Amino acid sequence: MWGHNVKIARFERLLNFLHSKDIDTTAVLRSYLLNDEFCDDLLNVNGVGPKTVDYLSCLVGLDSVAVDRHVKLFVKNAGVEASDYDTVKIIFSYAADLLNIPRRAFDAWVWEFISQRSSASEQFSLFHRSGATALVG
Predict the structure, then answer these.
(1) Which among 91, 60, 86 has a CA at the least distance from the CA of 75?
(2) Are 83 and 66 a contacting pair, CB within 8 Å?
(3) What is the C-alpha separation between 63 and 12, in angstroms, rounded?
(4) Is residue 62 predicted with pLDDT exceeding 60?
(5) How far apart are CA 37 and CA 24, in angstroms?
(6) 10 and 43 Cβ atoms separated by less than 8 Å
(7) Looking at residue 55, what DSSP letter applies?
(8) pLDDT higher than 60, residue 125
């Protein structure tokens, strides 16, 4: 149901790449993602970046962090000045390790936390703009 042609084309290129490597199960993909040379080749697919590689790793059960806007916002709100992908990933991974939480689980928790907070903020904003705030004053 995607309507964005660029994303569809990117997904097709990724699937074609995986097919060219005879990767047809998550178990096989998992073993390939443990190989740095394969990851480098994957990064050469047009439109695939480190976030995609890390996200695929998470999907197949490898303990990784796919740095997205939620993770970046969490790190920023923690008062850490970092913006490049690798630095944010290292900082976030260290935080998960210090908390003794799997990185994937910490990533999922932060994603859910930020999403809920954003949703609540949007709902409040809509509520406020509708004039309904007089009911709570």
Answers:
(1) 91
(2) no
(3) 26
(4) yes
(5) 19
(6) no
(7) H
(8) no
**pLDDT tens sequence across 28-56:** 999 999 999 999 999 999 999 999 999 99
Number of DSSP helices (H) and strands (E) in the chain, helices first = 7, 0
Q: Is 24 exposed, middle or buried (0-12, 13-18, 19+ CB in 10 A)?
A: exposed
Other beta carbons less than 10 A from residue 89's beta carbon: 22
Can you give the C-alpha Rg of the chain in angstroms?
19
Q: Which of 65, 51, 72 lies closest to 105 in space, CA to CA?
A: 65
pLDDT bracket for residue 122 (50, 70, 90)? low
Q: What is the pTM of this model?
A: 0.79
Q: Label residues 100-115 b or e (16+ Cβ within 10 Å = b).
A: eeebbebbeebbeebe
Query: d(Cα 42, Cα 17) in Å, to the nearest integer?
Result: 8
